[in-house]
Structures are given as structure tokens and as C-alpha cells.
Amino acid sequence: MMTSEGPKNPCTCGHGRRSHEVDYSNYPQRVEHGKCRVKGCPCTKYERRGE
Ligand SMILES: [Zn+2]
Ligand SMILES: [Zn+2]
User: Fold this and answer.
1) Is residue 14 part of a domain?
2) Mean pLDDT along residues 13-28
3) What is the pLDDT of residue 48?
4) Which residues lie below 8 Å from residue 11, measured CB to CB, with a gap of 6+?
5) For position 7, what pLDDT does the model report?
6) Closest ligand (CA of 34)
7) Which of 13, 15, 34, 46 could lock onto 19 through a cystine, CB 3.0 to 4.6 A?
8) Number of domains observed in the structure of the chain
9) 5 within a domain of the structure (yes/no)
10) Residue 49: predicted pLDDT
11) For residue 45, which ligand has an atom nearest its CA?
12) Neighbours of ion ligand 2 (CB under 5 A)
């Protein structure tokens, strides 16, 4: 099942996926997102919020 990766895909920290650093260590199999780039945000790893 495909995950919808629209702009509305907020992390547990409340910031969007695109506000996080991109981790290409598993590229191209998988692109993950690392820490949040928003200043002052303590988020260290992008994690999608559950519903
Ligand atoms: Zn985050
Ligand atoms: Zn954040």
C-alpha cells in the first residue's frame, strides 16, 4: 500500500515532512527523513503522526 506523501504529513513534532533533513543512507530503496530543520525544534527523527 502506498503512503500518501502530500504536504500534509506532519511529524510528531508538528512540522511537515519537508521541514526535515533527508536521509539518503538507504537510497534508492528508501528515503527517510531525519531531524527537523526548524530552529529550536528538538525533533531528531521524522516520525509520522498516527491518526
Ligand atoms: Zn519532526
Ligand atoms: Zn519539528
Assistant:
1) yes
2) 94
3) 86
4) 17, 19, 20, 33, 36, 43, 46, 47, 48, 49
5) 54
6) 1
7) 15
8) 1
9) no
10) 80
11) 1
12) 13, 15, 36, 38, 41, 43
